[in-house]
Amino acid sequence: MAATERRGHERSASAEFNRVDRAVQIQNATERLRSEMLNYVTNRFEEFTSEIKKAAKMPLINEIVQQPVVLPSELASISKVTNEKISQTIASQQSIDIKRSSSAFPTKSFRMRSSILTELLEVSHIRSIRQIFISILVLLVLQVAMTDLFETGSVDFRFDVIRWNFSNLSTCLRLWFILFTLTCTVVYYCFHFWAYKRLSLIPIVSSLSPDTEAPKKKTTSLMIFDGFWLTAYCLYIGVFLYFPVHFILEENYPIVTRMIVLVEQVRFLMKSHAFVRENAPNAILYGKIYSQQIKVEDVEDKVNDSPKEETNGIIPHTPCPEFSKFLYFLFAPTLIYRDSYPRTSSVRWNFVISHLIQFAATNLFAYYLFYRFCLPVFRHFNSEHVTVKIFVLSILNCTLPGALLLFCAFYGFLHCWLNAFAEMLRFADRQFYSDWWTATSWSSYYRTWNIVVHDWLYTYVYRDCHKLLGVKYRLVSMYAVIFLSACVHEYIISLTFGYFYPILFVQFAVLGFISMLILPQRTQNYAFNVFIWASLFVGLGMQMCLYSIEWYARQNCPRYV
Description:
With 561 residues, the protein is an all-alpha fold. Among the domains are: 2-66; 120-157, no CATH class; 168-341, no CATH class. The protein has helices at residues 2-56, 61-66, 72-103, 116-120, 124-152, 160-165, 169-197, 214-251, 255-290, 296-305, 323-331, 349-373, 375-378, 388-424, 442-449, 451-469, 474-497, 503-518, 526-556. It is globular, with a radius of gyration of 37 Å. Keywords: Acyltransferase, Endoplasmic reticulum, Membrane, Transferase, Transmembrane, Transmembrane helix.
């Protein structure tokens, strides 16, 4: 037994020695191979360098040290020239950096993406918040019904205000169709005529001799032609602004139908300007290519090297796009014109019907909020009731309803309405808003609350003002955006209610801009987010209170001329 164990130990020991011996042999072979490869590479490198030295006939190092390459006088002149070149290079680089900082604006890129709420509502915890609002709507309807049942013995869901607001819906739709027809015919076909007609006024470079005066005459005619159509475009904007307003005031439209006409009027104007602003540079560039003033290769190099602003990185193949592209743009839920957009493969009609039903329910919710919390408070408001105590309490009482109306406007229009139209048109980019509820500054709130309008203001107002005024007047360009947005909001509100009461304008263009300058632009302090929410609630309460007081004061108080 002992002998067997001894033989087993001897076999295992010999196997271990053999394994170690093989490992040592492999290591030695590897070291020999590495040393041989290093020697071979070193020898080949020395032979290569010696051949290069012989071919170049390089002098010895002693000769290089003894003989100066450059005389002291030549060295001084070279140093002077070098310093001048370096300073010129630095100055040119600084100017290039300034130009890039003033001209390199990010452009709107469309890609397939869903709205944030669409993704968040996939989570059951977030979806329960929507169910809470639905239950509040049901309770409001039951409250109105039970109150009528106990007081009058019958149920009245109080649709009288809705019937009054939509009493002339057919006239409103006819006016909308007129605005739509004017936009389709006047804007597109006039632009089409201008883009193609100006080609005949551009002198062809290859067919002209330097002695003829035809180039000067054609250039003058082209300038007059372009100036005439620019003036006609400005006149069209004025006429398009005047006649719908004259019509709704002449016919005495109710509040809701007035707002529908005014919002659609502004939307058509923004769409028209986007179409003209995007395609006018393309038409001018196409004319230069057509007249052989520039070559297609130069345009391709410029498109590849420069920021893609004027042509969006696309060389125009026609001076004016097809009417079908313009027609799709008029209904697409975006205000930035492109010849094509990312599209989905099919239409989910269940998705469309669901969002349209939610849009109608949101409007009904907003109506009952207004009817329950606004009308009873301000319906009998007149000059005898106006005291500081009642005024302050009215603002505080309107804070919560105003916040709920804000949520209704956001969810109903920016989410449900735009997503429904995007689905019907297979429009794939659904980023109509961002996470504005996490904003810690007014600038981030303005950028993320309504991305559709913000993109238009940034692309066609801020960038153009920035190019015209320069980097020094960046603050002026920023205020131009805020001022224009405040003016358009006040224009819609004033004509909707029939009186000028610039509460929204002061909050937007004055207080909002001052807050943007005072508050930090980028911070992660959640106290600023609380401040934004509190400011929104108080501001909405003030708007709801003051506009309602003014409306019913004009209804109840005697008029003095």
